[in-house]
Amino acid sequence: MRTADLSVVVANYNHAALLPRALDAVLAQSVRPREVIVIDDASDRDDSWAVATAYARRDPAVRLVRHDRNHGVCETFNEGLAAARGEFVILAAADDYTLPGFFEKAVGELERHPHAGLCCGYDSFSHGPDGAVVPAPSGWCDVPTYFAPEDVARLARRNLAAHGTIARTAALRAAGGYLADLAWYGDWLAYLAVAFRHGLVHVPEPLAVRTLAMAGSFSAGALDRGRHVGVVGAIVDRLASDAFADVAPLFRRYGNAAFLGTDLVRAAARRPDRWTAPVIGLLNGLSPEQYRELLDDPDPAVRELAGFFLGPFWRDAARERASRAAEVVHLKNLLELARAAAPPPGVAGKLRWVAGRAVRRLRRLAG
Q: Can you name the residues that pair with 97 across neighbouring β-strands?
């Protein structure tokens, strides 16, 4: 059986009942990983360590790390990322699991596209650990396709499916891994930073399954408004920093931070520099309904920001973007008609000249 230069990091905390499913799915892949690093984050309510030890005894690819105190999700995954020896890495939670063929498909695409920073599939999930797999089609493509950074920023309106993503280890490390102050959004920024720097390959099918957040889970902390605003504020800090200066323009241009919801505006309102371009540009992309909702916020700074985005400047900008998009479509249609028509003798040069003008016009509009 072929072995890929892939490190699988499995973070576990009191998931003894689900850990065998996760490890069985990894070890049964048609392409085996180079190593499987299981990190038990000081489980204290079940026999997780005994389960992990039994797998390590049976399979030499399994390496174990045991914490004597709980480090948390981000620190645990970063420890695994630092220890990974493979060219590629996947950071997997013990309550999620991979589907057959995942490693073969994803690693194969990354080998075919050496410039791509990661490969991901659908954000497939289940309701509870025993629920049926629910695919969440992206609509990006019908066959595995490489998308350049600009295209990813235009299409990625939500989170990339971290549980169904294999990244180049060096690229994920360069992005800082899962930044602890970003909590449950650590994977969101890490993988978008990699994709905005290197592009990605998307395989349009379910590759892995995540269990939807349950009470007491790590991501359930997002339900606490005060805590959520604080975490979103940390994201704004990062995107306004020099470390992410190369990718922040894509976030501003395409409104990718709007995924964070209205708390994005609430977090920005706390900043003394909220009216500067690096910050206010990140607030673009919410719906008019979301901005209107914020007009009732008790914080006057929030209301002021929301009013700005409902004002004439942004309405005019939206109309201009819509007009340019319509013109791009029109010019593309004209080009297709020109290419489909067989030119009569003697006018081929003129047709090329007209087509060249249209292409240049398209480039100006896209820029």
A: 209
